[in-house]
Write a structure and sequence with these properties.
By secondary structure, the protein is α+β, with helices and mostly antiparallel strands. The protein has a single domain, classed as 2-Layer Sandwich (Beta-Lactamase), CATH 3.30.450. Helix content is 41%, strand content 13%. The chain contains three helices and four strands; from the N terminus they run ββαββαα. It has a two-stranded antiparallel ribbon with strand order 1-2. It has a two-stranded antiparallel sheet with strand order 3-4. Strand 1 and strand 2 form a beta hairpin. Helix 2 runs antiparallel to helix 3. The radius of gyration is 15 Å and the shape is globular. The two termini are 14 Å apart. It is found in: Cytoplasm, Perinuclear region. Keywords: ER-Golgi transport, Transport. Belongs to the TRAPP small subunits family. Sedlin subfamily.
Amino acid sequence: MAVCIAVIAKENYPLYIRSVPTQNELKFHYTVHTSLDVVEEKISAVGKAMADQRELYLGLLYPTEDYKVYPFYCKIMFRKLHNSFTDVMCNPFYNPGDPIQSKAFDGIVSGMMVQPS
């Protein structure tokens, strides 16, 4: 299960970040943004050698003291998140680049997250 899920715009600003527990939210925001640098390094290292960019799995980005950071933890989870994100983008009332405030998207994310105890 995930403790933080983020959707980042191509310009590197968050469209959506949700974390559990919420008292560590600032720590997870920092982790998400530092992870972007590692993702960019790994993608540039892979370059054009990867035949199918849609199946991009970069593995462990880096371990922190408490967590391990993966860009796409598992394909099933990512596909579910991607399908929900696509639904948000296809909504004619959503302006691309605005923060995601969809209850349906939030519900999908909630189902993927560790439940607070």
